[in-house]
């Protein structure tokens, strides 16, 4: 099957590597807004095209993977491109999910395409584990923790403060809150009581560090009410020690069974990722495989990963799966 | 939807409790080989019938959950009953899985029924996580650990030794092997290097304890080559401290991504269950829900949990799922 990638940032590169490592996926091309002549792809066999050539290469593409941002790009391009392609996107703005779903569903349904939205690990794998918990243990509530890992949005927010040259923000689960979730089923805590924020900041020469630290710690929504620590470091240190994009997190669901609810049943799913974009890209590639299979069976419209049987993410035949992994 | 339970041991009781706790599942009846008059069900609304009445009550049952053993019962009754009912079974004899699958598939397919075999947590949820790992991270191998938990088969084996009145055997993962799996992707170790066995034994008065301990530790397949410890305790202690049936385990998959495989990606799924039969019964109930839904869409033949989209295990509508858990 032939997949194509739209957008060649970190996520696009992660998806490129995933296709390169999957024997059954052929990368038909990477499409970018930038000048293809000035971009060197990571893998030898990848070809880069200008975004304007996308529709003219429609016949060569079974599934198009959209590696663009949720904030402004995907709400516009996912419905538009679902009229021409089977697509996978990683839309993750929770409040706008239902609107996005309806628009993509209408576009894909009308033109006989299949679109999978919200692909990745959260939403994505974590959503499935939350669904398992609620389906199997009706008396449980799944609790989700994010990190330790880099939050791009929070890093950007720090960079906009005057006097800051560069910054990297790590979201870190608070250990006592994780332990409480494991004990009690769910911690019933707001996000700011479950996570702390660690900031590494390179300031301009002569900048007022106390003011920068205060501006970070009092920034509404982003840092205010969070346990926040600020470390000033050199630009070199940022480049050398904080260039990676690790992330991860866990879903913890503790339910009860038994006539007197006397038996505790704990379910836990955890990811520790050295590279968030490469793992997410690998999930998108598996989703592209599933979309191709399900579209081949006649399915059209919009779905999420919870609508896909696990076997359809896999290149294995059902008999091979039963023999090797069941 | 109406489910019925065949077999009223620990697993049958666990499934009864799961149906009782699920608003959308109605328990049409429990069918047993024993005299129904002499059995008091756990839940007030459950009705107990003799097994011979099963076929005559066919019309009242949407899905029949088979709570019988894999060793001798299921290979015989699953294909037989799949001719008359949609069924769920927890068949877990790995070596015989493909034969069982074919026989059930033929029986269910010919008569227009749907059968889900191998339901539970391993095979079951753990199989799906192993499949996720292989689908998303082609360079990973998932490693599975069982326990800490009670192994019924090993407990029975100890009880057959002369001089033993009662026994309980716990399978416990060896911590260094778990740590090694988390570090390296897979520990490449045989089961006896990944698990140790802890035995609590009540001996008859005057029995030769040294001989019993030696017979346990040298028992081929069961204990020989395993790190085994034997503790002699009173029958009272066994009853008071070892009556529960806890279990659990984990699947650990560590893969690599990146052009030089430089990024480690770790996926871990863990269960800690105070009651193995009650959790497994809850999984079987969720599978019964899925079988009813998929059969309603026209699916027939034999499937496993990997062939079911997570959304179909849930009583939630797709829109409710997207709003609450995605």
Verbal overview:
Two copies of one chain form a homodimer. By secondary structure, the first copy, chain A, is α/β, with parallel strands linked by helices. Chain A has eleven helices and 14 strands. Chain A has a seven-stranded parallel beta sheet, sandwiched between helices. In chain A, strands 8-9-10-11 form a four-stranded mixed beta sheet. A three-stranded antiparallel beta sheet of chain A has the order 7-12-13, sandwiched between helices. In chain A, strand 1, helix 1 and strand 2 form a beta-alpha-beta unit. In chain A, helix 1 packs across helix 10 and helix 2 runs parallel beside helix 3. Chain A is globular. The two termini of chain A are 26 Å apart. Chains A and B meet through helix 1, helix 3, helix 4, strand 13 and helix 10 of A and helix 1, helix 3, helix 4, strand 13 and helix 10 of B.
> Main beta sheet of chain A: strand number and arrangement?
7 strands, parallel
Assign a percent range to the helix content of chain A.
Answer: 25-40%
What oligomeric state best describes the polypeptide chains here?
A: homodimer
Q: What's the pLDDT, averaged over the residues of chain A?
A: 95
Largest interface: pair, residues per side: A-B, 74 and 73 residues
Gap between N and C termini of chain A, in Å?
Answer: 26 Å
What is the helix tally of chain A?
Answer: 11
Which residues of chain A form runs of ≥5 with pLDDT under 50? Answer: none
Sequence of secondary-structure elements of chain A: EHEEEHEHEHEEHEHHEHEHEEHEH
Number of strands of chain A: 14
Strand arrangement within the widest β-sheet of chain A reads: 3-2-1-4-5-6-14
- Beta content of chain A comes to 25-35%
* Outline type of chain A: globular
Gyration radius of chain A, to the nearest Å? 22 Å
Overall SS class of chain A? alpha/beta
